Amino acid sequence: MIQLLDIQKSYVIGDRELLVLRGVSFTIESGELVAIMGPSGSGKSTILNLLGCLDAPTSGSYFLDGREVSRLSSKELAYIRAQKIGFVFQQFNLLPKLSALSNVKLGLEYAGVVDSKSALQSLTTVGLADRANHRPSELSGGEQQRVAIARALAKRPPLILADEPTGNLDSKSGEEIINILAALHAEQKITLVMITHDSNIAAHCQRIIHLKDGMVEKDEKLY
Amino acid sequence: MKNYINLLRPFRNAWGGVTSHKLRSLLTILGIVIGVSAVITLMSIGKGAEADILSRIQTLGADLMMITPGSQMGFGGVRGAAGSATTLTMEDAAAIAERTDLVYAVSSIFSKNMQLIAGSENMNAQVTGTTPSYMETYNLNTSGGTFFSDYDLQRGTSVAVLGSTVAETLFGRNDPLGQNLRLGTIIVRVIGVLGSKGSVSGSPDNMVLIPLTTMQQVVAQQRTARGEQIISSISLKVKDQNLAESTVTQITDLLRTRHRLLASSANDFTITSMQEVANTVSETMATTTLLLGSIAAISLLVGGIGVMNIMLVSVLERTREIGIRKALGARDTDIWVQFLIEAGLLSLAGGLIGIILGWGASLLLSWLGTMHTLVSVDIVILAVSVSIAIGLFFGFYPAWQASRLNPIEALRYE
């Protein structure tokens, strides 16, 4: 599903070049549930942005479903994001003016999916069908994140990327979210890659990739 | 995948953007509203004035043609003093009248400003001695009594027909018919009053009409060296308006021959057709209308800049939304189109409200009688398309900026 080959990424800040990723290589098979861990500044978010086709690497190759995507135009990247990738963010990133249902539909819109029933269906999957017409401000943090998961899920992407999905939640809601994600992975065979600081959360995953200073420090298979 | 829902999608997104800040959207479009309504109101005032003047000219008849003595002054030309231009004669009029293939209702006119006295009232007005055909020449009718007849013309009877303003000034609410009126040395009896023609220069409202022969009793008529009787002007109607130009040419030739002018010398008379006057008025008014419209259009421009300003603020404020949309798979063009449509919708709404206000203001002005206005559909269409174009033009840059945002940075934007 995902194959990274010697990925390097550097940012130019002022007149200094900052090397964030110094040659990262790993492979994630279809249907895996992977956690990426590491101290801040280790390049976790940069990796996730690259995996999510929001950014392109400075050098190295990224094969997604066997297709080299690291040199694609922004238009082609947008198409891949729309079709293949669902994002779940730490900040939830729902549009505050839209209802929960409309937020989920937004995820379908750019994928060109017309069937709006799947929006309500995926809200049902995360147990929020009865809150469909509430705005994000009327929902708790855990509920907002569930709406965000429903949004990522609605277009049935093969890959879901989560950037500290429980980072803004209390431990009870966090546990709820990780259970939903784990259940989705188990039932729908979705490939799930998430960044986390929390080793309890990471313990739900099959595999943990430890990053440090822009390199893979340890690739740990749990079961 | 391209179906109607996908085509409507950017409109729905843009509509959401417009309606999420109602007061702001309203204030933004205010500039466009004022601009469009100003354009429509001012243009309709201009058009109304033009139509007004033209309709007054039309009541005299576009086929009316007037021949006056004296040449048309060209650049640097010198026109002779008023008294020196005494070249038209009754014999000229008779000669023209013989050309029945070209003209009809040829009237000789011999007029002079005189003091009128009726009872205790008096006023100064133009007394016109003419022929009974004058009624037809100027499309006149009487609101009371009758016009003088050929018999009156032959006998030089002391009768007069009053213009409506003259009748009102001299007799007020009393019936002027049958009353006596002193014109210089003679006393005439009022036998008719003309219907009002409205105030256009040379309107018969301010005249007293008497038979030409009667006029000759009041004012001594001069004669030319060849003994022809000099008159003030000749008015006539053109038989076929499509042949107006060739009619002018033929009458010109006729008069030049009669006046024995050398090929090198200029005409000693001027032929003015009402059609020409109408055209000139139309052109002048069109220019005035355009000027009014352009002044109003400046406020449209200012309104457009207002739209651009708000769109820039909106893009900045919704940076995070743009990031989210991009992460969900929106292409740069999706974002661009969304913001462009938003700007277009704003100014279209402004344009539509502006039309309603401008149209309303025009109708109100007409209704109050302040001035005559005329809203033409082409101005309305023009104002709407210009307002949409302004929205798209001034929305272009903000929308382009929005589409260029880096999704990662946009998502991090607080």
Structure description:
The complex is a heterodimer of chains A (223) and B (414). By secondary structure, chain A is an alpha/beta fold. Chain A has one domain (31-56, 73-221): 3-Layer(aba) Sandwich (Rossmann fold), CATH 3.40.50. Chain A is built from seven helices and ten strands. In chain A, helix 3 (100-109) packs across helix 4 (117-125) and helix 4 (117-125) packs across helix 5 (141-154). The two termini of chain A are 19 Å apart. Chain B is 55% helix and 17% strand. Chain B has a six-stranded mixed beta barrel. In chain B, a hairpin with a 2-residue loop joins strand 2 and strand 3. Chain A binds chain B through residues 49, 52, 54-55, 74-75, 78-79, 81-83, 85, 87, 89, 93-95, 97-98, 106-107, 109-112, 114, 151, and chain B through 1, 3, 5-6, 9, 16, 20, 320-321, 323-334, 407-408, 411.
Question: How do the helices and strands line up, and which of them pair or pack?
Answer:
The complex is a heterodimer of chains A (223) and B (414).
Chain A: E1 2-13, E2 16-28, E3 33-37, H1 44-51, E4 59-64, E5 67-68, H2 74-84, E6 85-88, H3 100-109, H4 117-125, H5 141-154, E7 159-163, H6 171-188, E8 191-195, H7 199-202, E9 207-212, E10 215-221
Parallel strand pairs in A: 3-8, 3-9, 6-7, 7-8
Antiparallel strand pairs in A: 1-2, 1-4, 4-5, 9-10
Chain B: H1 4-20, H2 22-60, E1 64-69, H3 90-98, E2 103-118, E3 121-130, H4 134-137, E4 142-145, H5 150-155, E5 159-162, H6 164-171, E6 180-183, E7 186-194, E8 207-211, H7 212-218, E9 233-238, H8 244-258, E10 269-273, H9 274-317, H10 319-327, H11 332-368, H12 377-404, H13 407-412
Parallel strand pairs in B: 3-8, 5-7
Antiparallel strand pairs in B: 1-9, 1-10, 2-3, 2-6, 2-9, 4-7, 5-8, 6-7
